[in-house]
Design goal:
The structure is a single chain. With 292 residues, the protein is of the alpha/beta class. It is 51% helix and 11% strand. It has helices spanning 6-10, 15-22, 38-51, 66-78, 90-100, 116-129, 139-151, 156-161, 166-184, 190-203, 205-214, 228-237, 263-266, 268-271, 288-291; strands at 28-32, 59-63, 86-89, 112-113, 187-188, 217-220, 244-248, 276-280. A 6-stranded parallel beta sheet has the order 3-2-6-7-1-8. A two-stranded parallel sheet has the order 4-5. The radius of gyration is 21 Å and the shape is elongated.
């Protein structure tokens, strides 16, 4: 049981921040500008949930970078919140779940994760095997195309089925060969982590329901930077309860090159018509001359 004083959780927060922290059940969109105390609100919200009797094991907070996840974990620990809440990146969550449900994802539990250097090396091997080394398709371009396809949940087969020109057909062949290399080495790349879990949640209703009931309170940071796969994963995890807090700023999206879809945050209220929206507009980070 969390022994934290509720007043201490709310201490130092302005009214919009308090509204975001104190909201418990149902969908919540927090539109947070730069320097508006977003991370503080998320960690205080986790504390508020626990102080109101929510089991920490039922709380999942997802952010985008290892640095942000580490900072959030530190703040949660500093606040004395009991152990059990999951605070991690999308990729870390998916890697963990794939280990747990490996057999349902047609994987071996001891799979390895290729880093970018391994991925580029595998793409180069695929290009060489297809005698495309002298073509205008560089390993970097091919890798980017494959990554974008996976983030859009296009398998090698579906990509090939929609390849409408010579360039796309060559990419499809490289993608197929690249996937074979990964399979032979019992390996996944970072994009596979998202794609495999998105498909797992889509195709196995029992697992989707079990995970949604495990993570009954979902918080997603930097929501404006979610891509299609991440969007569907989060939607699936909230499917049994709608206790979904999305935090972000449409004006700060920086990952469009990586498949981020700004429509995800713009359409949140369409996806959840009963969502409460809180605007955090006061900038605490910048000094006054910058703001005026």
């Amino acid at each position: 049981v969390c022994m934290m004083n509720r007043d201490s959780i709310l201490e130092g927060l302005n009214e919009p921040q308090r509204q975001a922290v104190q909201h418990i059940d149902g969908p919540l969109l927090v539109v947070a500008g730069a320097g508006s105390g977003k991370t503080r609100v998320i960690t205080r919200r986790v504390a508020w949930l626990v102080a109101n009797g929510i089991d920490p094991h039922n709380i999942l907070a997802i952010t985008f970078t290892n640095k942000a996840a580490g900072e959030m974990k530190e703040r949660v620990e500093e606040m004395g919140i009991p152990y059990g809440a999951t605070v991690c990146t999308f990729h870390a969550l998916c890697a963990r779940l794939l280990r747990e449900f490996a057999q349902y994802a047609n994987l071996q539990q001891n799979y390895t994760i290729y880093d970018r250097n391994d991925q580029i090396k595998a793409v180069k091997t695929a290009i060489a095997a297809l005698n495309l080394s002298g073509s205008y398709i560089t390993p970097g371009k091919a890798h980017a195309a494959i990554s974008n396809a996976k983030n859009a949940l296009q398998t090698a087969r579906s990509y090939a089925d929609h390849a409408a020109d010579f360039y796309a057909r060559n990419i499809a062949e490289i993608y197929t060969r690249y996937e074979n290399i990964l399979t032979q080495n019992n390996a996944l790349d970072f994009d596979d982590l998202l794609m495999r879990i998105a498909f797992l949640l889509r195709d196995h209703g029992d697992i989707r329901r079990a995970l949604s009931n495990r993570y009954r309170y979902l918080l997603v940071d930097e929501y404006q930077d979610t891509n299609h796969a991440q969007y569907l994963i989060a939607q699936a995890l909230a499917s049994e309860h709608d206790n979904y807090c999305a935090t972000g700023d449409p004006d700060q999206s920086i990952y469009a090159w990586r498949g981020a879809d700004i429509r995800n945050i713009l359409d949140f209220e369409k996806d959840f018509p009963n969502a409460k929206t809180v605007l955090l507009e006061e900038n605490y980070r910048s000094v006054q001359p910058i703001l005026t």
